[in-house]
Amino acid sequence: MEIQFEEQEIKQIRHFLSQVNAAEIREQSTDGSQIFPEWMTIFLLLRKLLAYGVYYVAQPKPEVSYQNLQRISTKPQDMLMAVQTHSHVFDRLLATYVARQKGTES
Questions:
Q1: Segment 53-71 mean pLDDT
Q2: How many helices (H) and strands (E) in the chain?
Q3: Which sequence spans correspond to the domains of the chain?
């Protein structure tokens, strides 16, 4: 199974994560669609990103595993809470994906 992202999908994830990291998305909000119009698309992209992490990225001694994040974020509202709590994990995973893609293009 190969998991790939289009450049536009990477940009969408980055934009969402930057809003979370800048605290533009309030932690008390449980409905991503109220604060981010493309929330369902982002939700699915984040699920895909976690699947990439589960299948392709080794995690030495993680504070929270990709498998656990995948398990606890099956619903959109749970994903929003997971990203708000563990945004750095999603940032690192996306950076890993991008770095590996650039490495294969060289």
A1: 90
A2: 5, 0
A3: 7-105
| Amino acid of residue 56 | Y
Query: In sequence order, what are the residues at sequence separation of 6 or more whose Cβ sits closer than 8 angstroms to the Cβ of residue 32?
Result: 25, 39, 42, 43, 76, 77, 79, 80
Give the residue among 10, 11, 96, 99 at the shortest CA–CA distance from 53: 96
pLDDT of residue 44 exceeding 90, the answer is yes
Whole-angstrom Cα distance, residue 62 to residue 58? 10
Is residue 43 packed enough to be buried (19+ CB in 10 Å), middle (13-18) or exposed (0-12)?
buried
Structure tokens at 48: 């895909």
Q: What is the pTM of this model?
A: 0.86
